[in-house]
Amino acid sequence: MRLLLQRSLHSSVEVDGNVVGEIPFGFVALVSFTEGDTEKEIDYLIDKMIHLRVFDDEEGVMNRSLLDVGGSVLSISQFTLYADTKKGRRPSYIHALRGEESSQLYELFNQKLSALQIPYATGIFGANMKVSITNDGPATFMLESRS
Q1: 46: left (phi over 0), alpha (psi -120 to 50) or beta
Q2: What's the mean per-residue pLDDT of the chain?
Q3: Model's pTM, two decimal places?
């Protein structure tokens, strides 16, 4: 599992010209799964995400977590995080988990945010989405469940 986090001041996602998800500040979380990912990987990365100290404290030092600042998460399914670009000029997505299994894991990721009472919004799995991000910093972090 891969989770690309972008610290955000405001973000939204549109599908077919309609805003389907929006957060005031926090993380835009681009979420991707690969073969063998389970609830264990989701639990590990959610815990890492919500406790990662990358938000500024009163002295401007990245020393606060999403929980500390009361931030939200805009959760976006992003299978292209598993693109393999080593050969040729066209990415291969052979390592990206697709279909029903990926959709189920993505829904479980969002359900776990809800169970932890993390304010969140989502895009629509598999849809052509337009994501607007006011990246704060910019500050972007790649989290992976495997080395």
Answers
A1: alpha
A2: 96
A3: 0.94
Q: How many CB atoms lie within 10 A of CB 32?
A: 24
The strand pair at 129-144 and 2-15 is best described as antiparallel
DSSP E strands: which ranges in the chain? Answer: 2-15, 18-23, 26-32, 55-56, 62-64, 72-77, 120-122, 129-144
The C-alpha angle 50, 53, 56, rounded to 5 degrees, equals 120
* CA-based nearest residue to 143, from 54, 63, 70, 24: 54
Tens of pLDDT, residues 17-54: 999 999 999 999 999 999 999 999 999 999 999 999 99
How many helices (H) and strands (E) would you count in the chain? 3, 8
Helix axes 39-51, 99-115, angle to 10 degrees: 40
The residues annotated as belonging to the active site are 78-80
Handedness of CA 15, 124, 120, 69 (dihedral sign): negative
Spatial distance between the Cα atoms of 22 and 39, rounded to a whole number of angstroms: 26
